[in-house]
Amino acid sequence: MDNCCTEYQIRIPLHLMAQRTIADRRGSISVTKRSPKSARPRKAAMFQRHAWDNGYESAVSEITEIGREFYSRGWVLGTSGNFSTVLHREPLWLAITSTGSDKGHLNPPQILEIDETASVFRGEGRPSAETSLHFAIVRGRAAGAVLHTHSVWSTVLSEQRASEGGVSIEGYEMLKGLDGVSSHQHREWLPIVENSQDVEELAQQISNTLKENPKVHGFLLRAHGLYTWGATIAEAKRHVEILEFLMETLVRTGSTVARPRRVGL
Ligand SMILES: [Zn+2]
Question: Ligand 1: distance of its center to the CA of 22 in Å?
Fold first, then answer.
């Protein structure tokens, strides 16, 4: 009866829906429910509202700013690269750049809110072509954000060191910018994964690589670019800056043909 009921609105992703009414253009559904005045429906409504208010707006501004900075450094030219941050862990939701977007001039709709099936709930366009790689890294590392660049340095280094299966970096003070590293004597291994246009196969390859190399902070796709991650998007951004610095140093000093000096071995 209406006089004993509380009316409230909740928004539920399609894949979680038990009851469907009106689908809006973003692929979510507005449902009007009537239920007795009790704590239970209020709690349910609060949970749904919390799940919906998941940091998407701040993710948009952080990703936009990172795109601008990385573009100015020449790391994501020509619509290359892609970025994501975790909005909700279980079920897994990401904010991720749309495919083909200019990372130096991202508009808010080009940062999409997607669920674990890559269905789009906010934003316009399709998710990055490499979305499966982001999922593989988030799941494999419990990462909070994943950033991918296409710099000259990562492209050169990943091609020249491909036969070695990775790049060993040690002796540099900047290594201390990587999470958990406290000495320049740390040896960082940057695996190189063969590039492929079969993204699902590539995602599986990356999952395997992460299992085989549990301590790495990133990896290279051959003649393609760098992937790194962090517990937060700020940490992932720092990792990009550190690894790009180190790769540029190796290339500029000719360390692509001679290994960087070894210390403390
Ligand atoms: Zn790429």
Answer: 37
Helix (H, G, I), strand (E, B) or coil at 260: coil
The count of C-alpha atoms lying within 13 angstroms of the C-alpha of 190, restricted to the half-sphere facing its C-beta, is 30
Which residues are bridge partners to 225 per DSSP?
A: 221
Query: Which residue type, as a one-letter code, is found at position 170?
Result: E
- Cα(150) to ligand 1 centroid in Å equals 6
Q: Verify cis geometry, omega within 30 degrees of 0, for the bond prior to 91.
A: yes
In sign, the C-alpha dihedral spanning 220, 90, 178, 169 is negative
C-alpha of residue 128 to centroid of ligand 1, in Å: 9
Domain boundaries, the chain: 2-52, 56-252
Tokens of 127: 């998710």
> How close is the Cα of 148 to the center of ligand 1, in Å?
7
Domain at 56-252, CATH homologous superfamily:
Class II aldolase/adducin N-terminal domain (3.40.225.10)
Q: What is the pTM of this model?
A: 0.79
**Cα-to-centroid distance, 220 and ligand 1 (Å):** 10
> What spacing in Å lies between the alpha carbon of 206 and ligand 1's midpoint?
13
CA–CA dist 203, 28 (Å, integer): 28
- Give the C-alpha separation, 165 to 242, whole Å: 21
pLDDT in tens, 222-253: 999 999 999 999 999 999 999 999 999 999 99
